[in-house]
Amino acid sequence: MIEMTLLAMLLAYSIYITWQEAKIGYLKSRIEWRNADCATQAQTIEDLKAELAAAHTELARIKDIAESTLQSKGGRDDA
Fold it and tell me: Origin, by domain of life (predicted)?
């Protein structure tokens, strides 16, 4: 009877260990997926920052052209 109880406990521990190993594998996969997702998001953020900087540069260029055009036409209209 004691041997059966020990075998049952051993089987229960074996199942629990297998379940925990599967859980660990699943969590590792989720972490890897999240890391990859974060890397993609970080790249997207860097791309957006570069696009924003380019837009600021283009805006400054257009403002300079507009100001230069106004000055060449006889002055700036502040109204």
Answer: Bacteria
Q: What is the C-alpha R_g of the chain?
A: 33
Give the integer Cα–Cα distance in Å for 73 and 46.
41
- Token pair, residue 40, equals 């993609």
Cα–Cα separations (whole angstroms), residue 66 to 7, 59, 70, 78: 87, 10, 6, 13
Q: Is the dihedral of CA 75, 76, 77, 79 positive or negative?
A: negative
Q: Tell me if the pTM is above 0.70.
A: no
CA torsion sign, 23 to 27 to 33 to 36?
A: negative
